[in-house]
Amino acid sequence: MSTLSQQRKAKKRELIKKIYDRLSKHKQIIIVTLMNVGSNQVQQFRHSLLQRNGELVIGKNTVIRKALNFRMNPIREDQEDSQYFRKYGDPIPALEKLSELCHKKVGLIFTEEPVYELKPVIEGNRIQAAAKVGVVAPCDVVIPPGPTGLDPSQISFFHALKISTKIQKGQIEITKEFKVCEKGRAVTNSEATLLQKLAIKPFSYGMEIISVYDDGSILTPEVISISPDDIIKKFQIGASNITALSMELNIPTEASVPHMIASAFKNLAAISLETHYKLPELENLATAAPTQAHHHEEKPKEAAKEAKKEEKKEEEKPAEEADVDMGGLFDF
Question: CB of 125 within 8 A of CB of 207?
Answer without folding.
Answer: yes
